[in-house]
Amino acid sequence: MHNFLSLCKSAIGEEHVLLEAVQQAAYLQDWRQRATGKALAVLRPANTEQVAHLVRLCAQFQIPIVPQGGNTGLVLGSIPDQSGNAVVLSLQRLNQIRAIDTANSTMTVDAGCLLAQIQNAADEQNLLFPLSLASEGSCTIGGNLSTNAGGTAVLRYGNMRELCLGLEVVTAQGEIWHGLRGLRKDNTGYDLRDLLIGAEGTLGIITAAVLKLYPKPLSYGTAFIRLNSIQAAVRLLTLAKQHCHTSISGFELINQLSLQLVHQHFPQLQRVFTEASPFYVLLELSSSDTEQATYQQLEQLITNALNAQIIEDAVIANSLAQAKNCWALRESISAAQAKEGKNIKHDISLPISRIADFVTETDLALQQAFPDCRMVTFGHLGDGNLHYNVSPPSDANHDQFLIHQNQINRLVHDKTHQFGGSISAEHGIGTLKKEELLRYKSTVELTMMRNIKRALDPQNIMNPGKII
């Protein structure tokens, strides 16, 4: 190993080969601080050529590689295991915006660029990069691509697979695939881009990407809405699509406990309603029309929903500050739940038509099996993605409750599968859901995935032990 590490130091500089525990600590612990791995070294290359050089060294010495961006993942996909045999290859130094092509509406960026950095660069050109996540100040675009991240604007713009036109990738053999093509049509064989997106670094290392940009909306309309059931929320979504389909840029579901925890742990955020309801929807329209026209469209939708007795009440934001407060309430749910204590998270997707029945049936099953457990249900109802989280009873010992995690996961995932859904909508599989994947994927699917893995990474050095 001494020879390997010496060669790494020669390739990228001794100061960027981290060997001491104190230097490695931030790279080895997962975002939720539930697991910590061990690494032979943390390697911090500065460009694609250095990444390729390091991968060739790892292939030569048969050293496993764990690619890592901002390390904000939630499924233990970006940290190494406990063996200490792998290196963490951090892409944080690959953080340059290479080019912005306003005529083509694209931006070419390094994989280590922060999502917020890309959003701001687009904004400076009066354009929009629409991916929006609570972790946008710390997550990187490479990580977003590796997990096919979604966020709050998928209903309008799609997830990362739809937001990316081209990739630059270092293969498991240390070769560079120069696929940074800003083409919206390229029917020249297998779509390698889509294969690499969502692969969580198991097939290659994404080092750069060509991203789609959009015209920046000229106006927004934001409403916070009270509803008495999740069925009503689905009816409201159907109504909104009928009347405002091209304008809907956000449709977020929030249950009562989710909002209650936010008010409890972030009292500085202004309450929208004094009266509680079982569910809420945060609805956003965005348009190239005038503010008045967008406001009128939103107001008419609310009026129609009230007349149809779909909703109980609604507040339309009358200022940017009010709109930001509404979004802060939504985006603070995960942080509020973390302050409340430990919980069991599920990132699932379902056909929108089946979400209400799933929630009703699964809530009941969980209450019967684990009395007084608390449901923190929220997420991107517009694209069928729920963050369906189970918290301990208010007076329970959280560590004792987590003993039931496998049982709860099985119940929730079995129900998800029963209703035609997926056990991972946007967080990925990592190691956390690896065994669960074996339960729900068909033998044919798993065989195809394993064959692809063996073909592209025959030495099994690219993030081994993740996904399959």
Automatic annotation (TrEMBL):
UniProt keyword list: FAD, Flavoprotein
Residue ranges of every copy of the FAD-binding PCMH-type domain listed in the record: 35-216
PROSITE patterns in the cross-refs: FAD_PCMH
Record field: transmembrane: none
Family listed: Belongs to the FAD-binding oxidoreductase/transferase type 4 family.
PANTHER family tied to this protein: BLL6224 PROTEIN, D-2-HYDROXYGLUTARATE DEHYDROGENASE, MITOCHONDRIAL
Protein name (record): FAD-binding oxidoreductase
Protein species of origin: Undibacterium danionis
